[in-house]
User: Fold this.
Amino acid sequence: MHARLVICAALGLLLLASLASPRGGAGPADQEPDGIPTEWRNPCGTDGSFGVRGEFDARSGFRSTGEETLWIFDADFEDLSGDNLGWLSLDRSGTLEQVNHWHKDTIRINGFEWLGDSTWWCGTYSDCWRQPRGYGNDWTCILSRECPEVETLSSEGDSLVLSYDQRFAMENDYDYGYVEVRGDGDPDWTTVWVVNNIGFAGHPGNGYDWDDNGPYDYNRGHVVLDLSEFAGRSLELRFRFESDCAYSSQDQFDNPPSHSVMDGAWQIDNIRIDAWTPDSVSVFHDDCEPPGDNGWVHDDPVPSGQTGLTFWRGQFGLDFVTGRTFTCDDRPVGAWMYAAVDPFESKMVDDQNSWLVSPPIDISGAAKLVGKWDMWVDLPRPTEDVFDLSLASNDLYESVTDPAGFVDESAGAWYGGPFWGN
Assistant:
């Protein structure tokens, strides 16, 4: 991607025929005495800070810019000052280091006396999201506990039962909650229950509340599971919630008529393990009330599988060794840019997911915006590699710097030649 980003705020009418079309640079003859090209000095087509109506494009029927436009942001990456400061280069490849959102919360417990004052919930609150309460995309949240009480208070052959209360709202067929156990010495977790919204494929589905009692007994508000095969053994228990890359509280305005992810994710209370020996024995009980976590662990998952490859700032024609000869003749101002390639091999790697994120840009008072930039993309369509543009518009700083707050505002992405397409 070439290193030029300009954003203009229009206080009046602002129309742009095409936001992402490539364009050539100005030649040396188009430069003004100070060396700045005419077209880059005033990229929004205005006269000074506030200008006149832009030129009319007969082909598109639109004017390039509107009245009273203001150039508010210009990054050319020639140095590390001004608008060139604050850019972040991130690697989101492989299995990401993630925040584990299980915590004690009071959300949606009013009217359900048996829940007490608190519950476990793996959602969160974010003003950056379309629905400010719920869960985001690409989440993995784990609430786990070692249960040595099972070995102490039960014996092999006893009847062992896990029960708990729950409420959940998650995308049907794509986002899931898993109840998993692992006995002492077992290398892998055993899934004993799966939770998901009920509905037809492709439909948001219906979430379940604390007092739901069917028609599907495996997703009722009160769940009872048989763990008898683990009786007499030291046991680990965990609740794992996972979401896919889209259709969550983060990116959905609403899901009529069922509100499938409204205040979404998985919420749990009154976790019990009981044994019959044959007398009834309470092995473990957690009503999820403060203080403390009662032995539950909800640490952030550690990163693994990272490529370590991000956008990096280099000099066009010198630092990017591509096997071809590049010149700066068509780049009249400078030659610095960011690229998402290995600086030694000048290649992408498999499963690379590189992000270049701008600093927060103050657009307060602007009625419309237009962005213009130069870029060079070599992503042939058959490879299924793409370049995309995502935006986060919010006053919160973390909404701009954290990719979790970004939204792809238009479907599709850009590929490399021999043609352009969305």
Q: What stands out?
A: Confidence is low (pLDDT under 50) at residues 1-5, 8-54, 321-334, 417-422. Residues 149-153 form the longest helix (5 residues). The CA atoms of residues 27 and 329 lie 8 Å apart.
